[in-house]
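Annotators were shown the component list below and the corresponding predicted structure, then asked to write short factual statements about the assembly.
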Amino acid sequence: MTTLAPEPTAGTVAPPPDTPFDQLRVVPARHPGRWVATGVVAVGLAMVLNSLITNPRWEWDVVAAYLTEESIVRGVWTTVQLTLITAVLGFALGTVLALMRLSRSPLLQAVSWGYTWIFRSVPLILQLLLWYNLAYLYESLDFGIPFGPSFASVDTLSLIDKFGAAILGLGLHQAAYSAEIVRAGILSVDQGQLEAAASLGIPRRRQQTRIVLPQAMRAIVPTAVNEVIGLFKGTSIVYVLALGELFYTVQVIYGRTQRVLPMLVVAAVWYVVLTTVVTVVQYYVERYYARGAVRTLPPTPLQRLRTNLTAGLARVGSRPDGTAPR
Amino acid sequence: MTTTPTRPGRVEVRGVHKSYGSHEVLAGVDLVVEPGTVTVVLGPSGSGKSTLLRSINHLEKVDRGFVALDGELVGYRRRPHRGGERLHELKEQDVLRQRTRFGFVFQAFNLFPHLTALDNVVEAPVSAQGRRRSEVVVEARALLEQVGLAEKAAAYPRQLSGGQQQRVAIARALAMRPAVLLFDEPTSALDPELVGDVLGVIEELARGGTTMIVVTHEIGFARRAADQVVFMDAGRIVEQGPPEQVLDAPQHERTKAFLARVL
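Structure shown to annotators:
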């Protein structure tokens, strides 16, 4: 808090009534309500912490023992793989769908619309089971000329195993949502940008990749990260395929040891860690795409910490002689 | 694909009509702009000035009539057909190639906000004309210097004032080495004190012999820089001629009324 004029040392006599206002001491406004609220919340936090520590049923020793246990780490790795692959697949296909939806071909528009409609309508868990049972519908998959001869034939079961079904189900489902996110981002870019690019004769593909998408990213990134975080946790649904990701692994372990709660805490801790990593990445990605959109870039958390520390130290240092902090 | 535009820039507009729904914006416009001359288009808002300008570089497709640059049709190609001839619509990439012969300066600047001033200028010559980046960068710096912004090369548009942004936009248009420059109310979005800087740059270009078509409300600029002044109203050219004739001795009632209001 800054004051308008140097604060007189404590204990000095109040200045006479006709002193010019710029030499008077400024008394900061008081906020009693804020202090009460802060106190209430602090007590609440203390109660929660106390119960977490003192209630033995949390079994923190079991949590600690299993947190880095080999099968758990393998499960975490599978969860990370599932998330990253489906996020890339979902957003790649989503971008294509968004561009189709915005194209001038009525068929492309309709197909894109239809895709989004279907894949958003059918529950994910149902889609996963459908993909896993694809071999029942089509025993083998042929690659060749449409309606013509086939060059290669693959057994469906060998191509779409549990992991494949999970990737397909999550990825195609994600694409439907991603398409709308990318489309919203593209629509948020000013029409004048396309006109300027067209008037300069910039080729159409380059207009999209160099001019429109980089600007759309500012609107896309926050929602996209939301989706990736959702995916991290959403991958737990593939336990229905008995695929050994984090949640399924945890279930297997507590099925054997009966230590249900500590194992759920283990999973929760890992999901929090993964989400935190993504959130940190998000901050820097957003900062990157903010170039040009703001006059000066916001400081990174590290820079902010440094400024706050220096300011704090300066304040502590300035106390003894009674001068006001700046 | 390197295009080396030959300098002349003769623009011919013949019988151009354009409607949005039932509203006729251009109702038969004929205009010839000789190479190296400056044409200023005046007229009340809604008279079709901007639409005419946007039709010239095919940002708008016209309903009837044609536009030609140095005898080459804009947006179409003549092809023999059963003893006669037909007009074929050009593919988008050919239209884009034709557009590189026009430089367009927008009222709202339309700079690319995520690119620096220098990259705004460098982008199109590299991606649309396939020129070497290193060579274009040197030229872009010279152009920024020409518009008085040499030290702003690394700045993003949002860090520049409106007048500075518009001057970057002019440098961006010039980087394509266009035969004709089209200005759509280049100073209408600017604070009055910044208008002079931008008009100064445009007048400098005019003295250098660049062919220009300028839609504006700046009568003073028309008087100083124009070889030909065109007055439009309700989608038609009402009056045209040298500035001293159109501005000082207008023949048509509507021209007189308009000038009485803006002067």
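Statements collected:
1. The CA atoms of residues 68 and 266 of chain A lie 9 Å apart.
2. Confidence is low (pLDDT under 50) at residues 320-326 of chain A.
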